Amino acid sequence: MGVAPHLLAPAINAIMGQRLVRKLCDKCKKPITLPPELMTDVKKQLESISEASGEAKVDADKIQFMGPVGCEECNKSGYKGRIGLYEILIKDAEIEKAILGGNISEYAMREVATRQGMVTMVQDGLLKASEGLTSVEEVKRIVGL
Ligand SMILES: [Zn+2]
User: Fold this and answer.
1) Domains in the chain, start-ordered, CATH in brackets?
2) How far is the CA of 7 from the centre of ligand 1 (A)?
């Protein structure tokens, strides 16, 4: 961001990311089976959700994912409205030290965050997809897998 790390670290308490995904139309969404390769990626993500997050463990094999169809209600798009995917990183001593050090990679930051219990945006998206709120395809399109 072009700001000196020692100025930045004390000023930040939390870093939040948000992306919007389309919400599946409640009138026409239908149960789908994910292609095996996609399912493998989904499983990997769901299994890597931090235990510290407080999220209940989800068994990807038991999830009924939903997909878009299209009807009058949603202008044939299969989607209606949007929902937010979030990730929130709380600044703790470890993160502050890392920022002050000025040499933390995004990957390292993510590692600390996950240990802290952060659910990543992808994981949040897949949890929402597992509830049928959006589709895995949509999550993949917006935040990647
Ligand atoms: Zn519809």
Assistant:
1) 5-143 (3.40.50.300)
2) 49
